[in-house]
Design brief:
Length: 337
C-alpha cells in the first residue's frame, strides 16, 4: 500500500497544463492523456477515502466488543500507536523509504500530529459524559465545518449545491445514529465538538502536505500522538499492561488493524481529492458502523436508520458527480507517496 505511483502521474497533475501552447500544438493528444491521468488519480482518491471510512466504521464496532471484556479505549490507542510506529519502521527499512519530512512542511506536520491527537483524545473522552450516539452526531458536524471554512481556506465558492449536499449528508448521519438527547453533560458535548473541529483542521492540513511521503507522514504523526496518548492514559489511570489486550484478541486485532489500514488510506486519499469531498465521503463511517453492528452485534436497523444510510449514499454520489464536473476548474496538486 506504500508503493509510489509512476513518475508520469506526478508530472501531469495540474489540469492547467491543458491550456499550454505545446499541448495545443500537438492536437490535444497530450491534453487528453493528462486529463485521463488526473481523473484516474481523483477516482483513486475517492476509492481510498471510501475504503478508509468503511474501515473506521468497522473498527468502531470491534472497539465496542473489546470494551465489553474490559479493554479500555485509551489503552488500545496507546498500543496501536506503538504498533503503527513499529510497522512503519519495518516498511521504511524493507522498502528503503525515507522517514524524512519535507523541510517546508515541518510546521504543517506538527499541526497535523497535534490535530490528530486531539481528534482521538476528545472523541474518546466525550463518551464518558454523553451517550455514544450523541457523541457521533456532534462529531460528524465536521463536514459542515469544512464546507463553511473552505471559502476562507481553499478559496472555493460556497455554492448552493454544495451546501445542499452537506445538509443531506448530515441529516442522514443523524437518522442513522438515532440520538437520544436526554441527560446531556456539557463537557461531553464540548469534547465531541472539539473533536469535530480538530478533524476539520486535520483534513485541510493533510490535503496540503503533499511533499512528505506517506510512510514518513504516518510515522511523524504517530510520534506526536504517542506522548499525548500516554499522558492522557496516565492521568485517567487507564494505562494497562499489554496483557489487557489478550482479553479480546480478535476484537483488539480487528480494531488495531482497521485503524492502521484506514489511517493510511485516509492520507493517500487526501492528497488526491479536496478536503470538502473527503469530509462528505467520511459520512459513510457511521453508516458502515451501523450495518456492521447489526451483522456482528445483532443490533437491528430500523427503517429510519436505513433511510438515513440512503440519504448519506445519495449525498456522496451527488458530491462525486459535482467533483467530476468541476475537475477542469479545480486542479489537483502533485503528491508524494
Amino acid at each position: 500500500m506504500f508503493h509510489s505511483r509512476p513518475a508520469p502521474c506526478r508530472a501531469f497533475c495540474f489540469l492547467r497544463l491543458l491550456h499550454s501552447p505545446l499541448i495545443r500544438a500537438n492536437g490535444g493528444h497530450l491534453a487528453n492523456h493528462d486529463l485521463d491521468m488526473t481523473r484516474s488519480s481523483h477516482s483513486t482518491g475517492l476509492l481510498f477515502a471510501i475504503g478508509s471510512a468503511s474501515l473506521y466504521g468497522v473498527n468502531i464496532v470491534f472497539a465496542r466488543m473489546a470494551s465489553f471484556v474490559g479493554a479500555s479505549g485509551s489503552a488500545i490507542v496507546v498500543y496501536r500507536v506503538l504498533l503503527m510506529l513499529a510497522l512503519v519502521a519495518i516498511v521504511a527499512v524493507a522498502a528503503r523509504r525515507s522517514l524524512a519530512m519535507a523541510r517546508e512542511e515541518r510546521g504543517k506536520m506538527l499541526m497535523l500530529g497535534i490535530s490528530t491527537a486531539f481528534v482521538g483524545i476528545c472523541y474518546l473522552s466525550s463518551v464518558a459524559f454523553i451517550p455514544v450516539t450523541v457523541a457521533v452526531v456532534v462529531f460528524y458536524t465536521f463536514p459542515i465545518l469544512i464546507v463553511l471554512a473552505s471559502p476562507f481556506v481553499e478559496k472555493t465558492p460556497l455554492t448552493p449545491a454544495l451546501i445542499g449536499v452537506v445538509v443531506i449528508a448530515t441529516l442522514g448521519v443523524c437518522l442513522v445514529v438515532g440520538p437520544a438527547f436526554s441527560g446531556l453533560d456539557w463537557r461531553g458535548l464540548a469534547l465531541a465538538f472539539g473533536a469535530s473541529v480538530a478533524t476539520a483542521i486535520q483534513f485541510f492540513i493533510a490535503a496540503r502536505c503533499n511533499k512528505t511521503g506517506v510512510v514518513a507522514k504516518v510515522f511523524w504523526i504517530h510520534l506526536i500522538v504517542l506522548p499525548t496518548s500516554l499522558l492522557i492514559s496516565l492521568v485517567t489511570g487507564q494505562l494497562a499492561p499489554p496483557s489487557i489486550l489478550a482479553l479480546a484478541p480478535f476484537a483488539v486485532a480487528m480494531t488495531i488493524g482497521g485503524y492502521i489500514a484506514g489511517f493510511v488510506l485516509q492520507f493517500l486519499a487526501l492528497g488526491r481529492i479536496t478536503a470538502v469531498a473527503a469530509g462528505i465521503i467520511y459520512c459513510t463511517e457511521p453508516v458502515v458502523a451501523s450495518l456492521a453492528s447489526a451483522l456482528i452485534l445483532s443490533e437491528a436497523l430500523s427503517p429510519v436508520q436505513i433511510a438515513g444510510g440512503a440519504l448519506v449514499l445519495a449525498a456522496i454520489i451527488t458530491n462525486v458527480l459535482l467533483e467530476q464536473r468541476s475537475l477542469k476548474d479545480a486542479p489537483l496538486v502533485p503528491i508524494a507517496d
